[in-house]
Amino acid sequence: MAELPTRDAGSGPDAAAAAARILESLRGSRGTVELLVVSDSEGRAAGARMLVRPDAVEGSLGDPELDAAALAAASRERLARGHGGSLHNLQTPAGRRLQVYAEGHRPRQELIVVGAGHIAQPLATLGTLLDFEVTVLDDRPEFATRERFPDAAAVRTIDFDDPLSGIDVHAGCHFVLVTRGHKYDYECLRRLLARHGEAKPAYLGMIGSRRRVRATFIQLEAEGIAHEAIAQVRAPVGLDIGAQTPAEIAVSVLGEMILERRGGTGEPLRTRERIVERFLAKKPPAGSVK
């Protein structure tokens, strides 16, 4: 985690103040890790709290070495990606020992599916199972219906001249563009990538052929969108699992989101762990001569 610029001295906020700060941070679409000292071998910091956000630290354990160790524990909760909490044992070179509980609080995780066609349906269903708050957007009233998307939190009919009207774009948003045409993808991407100084979505993916993706990117570049911003778009979207059906494509897309949120390599676990090669005795092929 990068060095954090501000730190307030003292033992940090009490429980009520910490809860208020966390809620304020989440409303601003920022993740927060709360660090609570459960025990201290010297009895000096028990009950002390630190709040760690991407841009600031509030509170201190009263020792620079312990503060640094606590910040490392906070980084392992992964700030905005963290979920739940865990205990961490800290110790200074002088032998002082602390047990700290680190709990990550992240902004609400939203999946915004732009386009209500056949791929959008399994995206909405699987996204809900993965604990996303799902919103489906389309300009066709006959497609954007509750009957077609019973699991979505919201289904809205939009105008593609202003597709993000009423959408709160924040750091917990995951956009997947599965519209029926290049011009609709372009308009959504243009508005999302041109947000200067505003929160960027956690994930921005667009389905489409190489030709469709290339045409969209060339048009964005011609409009003055920075190359670095265009490079953040995941297009074609998803992991290479050979997906063909709408449900398989949804698995591919959401698998990439999980990979981004939780971390990992995308490598098959069997290949990584190599259980057979490492732990089973090698036997000669049947019929071979010893």
Features:
5-stranded parallel β-sheet, alpha/beta, 290 residues, 2 domains, 9 helices, 6-stranded mixed β-sheet, disordered N terminus, 32% helix, Rossmann fold
Helix vs. strand class: alpha/beta
- The dominant shape is globular
Number of helical runs? 9
Cα radius of gyration in angstroms:
24 Å
Helical fraction: 25-40%
Task: Give me the secondary-structure topology.
Layout: E1 7-8, H1 15-27, E2 32-40, E3 49-53, E4 56-58, H2 64-76, E5 84-91, E6 97-105, E7 110-114, H3 120-129, E8 133-138, E9 154-157, E10 173-177, H4 182-193, E11 203-206, H5 210-222, H6 227-230, H7 246-262, H8 269-273, H9 275-279
Parallel strand pairs: 1-4, 7-8, 7-10, 8-9, 10-11
Antiparallel strand pairs: 2-3, 2-6, 3-4, 5-6
Helix pairs in contact: 3-7, 4-5
Could you characterize the architecture of this molecule?
The protein starts with 6 loop residues before the first strand and ends in an 11-residue tail after the last helix. The protein has 290 residues and is an alpha/beta fold. It has nine helices and eleven strands. Helix 3 (120-129) links the parallel strand 7 (110-114) and strand 8. A six-stranded mixed sheet has the order 1-4-3-2-6-5, sandwiched between helices. A five-stranded parallel sheet has the order 9-8-7-10-11, covered by helices on one side. It has helices spanning 15-27, 64-76, 120-129, 182-193, 210-222, 227-230, 246-262, 269-273, 275-279, and strands spanning 7-8, 32-40, 49-53, 56-58, 84-91, 97-105, 110-114, 133-138, 154-157, 173-177, 203-206. The protein folds into two domains: 7-105, no CATH class; 110-262, Rossmann fold. It is 32% helix and 21% strand. Helix 3 packs across helix 7 (246-262) and helix 4 (182-193) crosses helix 5 (210-222). Mean pLDDT is 84; it is low at 1-10.
